[in-house]
Amino acid sequence: MVDIELRELRLFLVLAEELHFGRTAERLGLTTSRASQALRALERKLGGRRLFDRTSRVVILTAAGHALHDELAPIVTGLDNMLTRARARAAGLGVIRLGVLNAASGTLVLNEAVTLFEDAHEGAAVRLVATPLNDRLGPLRRREVDLSVTRLPLDQPDIVIGPLLSQDDPRVVMVAIDHPLAGRNHLSVEDFADYPVRKPADVPELAEASCPSHTPSGRPIVPSDVEVNDISELLLLIAQGRLIHPTVAPFAEHFRHPGIAIVPVRDLPPSSTALAWLRGYEHPARDTFVATVEQVVATHPQPAWRT
After folding, report:
1. What parts of the chain have a pLDDT lower than 50?
2. What is the pTM of this model?
3. 3-state SS assignment for residue 72
4. Structural contact between residues 174 and 238, judged by C-beta atoms closer than 8 angstroms
């Protein structure tokens, strides 16, 4: 009987997702050469059939790799879920990692839910983890966090949308205080086409909701080509007049800056925020915390944002 280790199977599944040895090695805490060696060992144990076609530039699943992935993925997921349940029974609920891009929306619901959850379950805790500006769902997909606070709309097949944390947040634009748009009482999407616009690039539906690709008259809205790595850099670029930033009122108010004006947008629908988690992975502590959030929302419905 061939002695195949679980870590080899996990490496195969991660590589099938990433199709990149460097990113796979980073996720698993290995060197790239060690990841390549482990894959070759797995291929030998499975009869020598190649699972990936590899060149210096691309990594592609072979037919044999596709077949193995389709059979193996649900088995390993089931095993992970079983181990998660076993650890939860042995150690209690433990720590929940909650991914947050910023603290602008849903704070009242989250604060009350965290207090109730931690008071009701001895040893349980919710730890906030900052998620990257340009990769808001990455930590969730890499299982670096158990839950994330996300802006809606969000339509990703591997992500489950849970209870709402805020509702009907108005759309606004952040511009430099000396920008031509700064003195206006309100703006239209039509105005966006005249200036470089910062749009979220990591989730297409969020990008389109915050700033459509075309104005109502059909003019293209071109995203700024200025690289933005974090919120502090974003605020500086706005204040310098190098871009405008369509967003929501809670974000703009939370990160209010003396060099930035906030102007309402009249023809974009309001937005909401919600909890989200990865589909298919069981997590008893996560589910218990989500139920606590649902209890808070049901007991104290959140009013719409007041401007």
Report:
1. 307
2. 0.68
3. helix
4. yes
